[in-house]
Please model this.
Amino acid sequence: MKKKAKSPSKRSLMNEFFNDNFLKPFDFYSFKVKGPKGPSANFSETKTLYKLDLECPGYKPADVLVELEGNRLYISACQSSQQEEKDSNYIFQERSSSSFSRAFTLPEDAKLDSVACKMQDGLLKIKIKKQKTRSRKKQKLTVMES
Model:
C-alpha cells in the first residue's frame, strides 16, 4: 500500500513564493555594492562653496583624472607598478594594477567654471564655488480645453 504524499502547508508555499528568487527580477533596484567599492568620499558645503574629499592613498596626481560633463563630476584613477630583480640564477618579477571611478551629480547652484582640485597626502580635495541663484518665479499656467 502506497503512502499518500503529504501536501505542502500554506506557510511553506508562502515561504517558497517569497524566497530570494521572488525579488530577482527587481535586483537592479538593489543598493548593495557588488565588487570592489571605490574610495570613500565626504561631500560637505559652506555658505560659499561645496567640498568633496576623496581618499586616494597610493595614487599620484598624475594617476587621477577629474572630468566635468554638465553637472556630473567624474573621477577616475589608474595606477600600475612593476618590480623586477635580477640575479645570476634568479629572476623575480611582480606586477600590480588598480583603478577606480566615481561619479557625482553636483547641485544646481554649483558654479561649474570654478572647480579646483588638489591632491595632498593621498586625499583628493575638490572645491566648487556656489553661484548666487536667481529666485525662481512662480508662474500660473492656464489649461486650455481642446
Notes: Confidence is low (pLDDT under 50) at residues 26-35. Strands lie at 41-45, 49-55, 64-69, 72-86, 91-105, 110-120, 123-130. The domain at 35-130 is CATH 2.60.40.790 (Immunoglobulin-like).
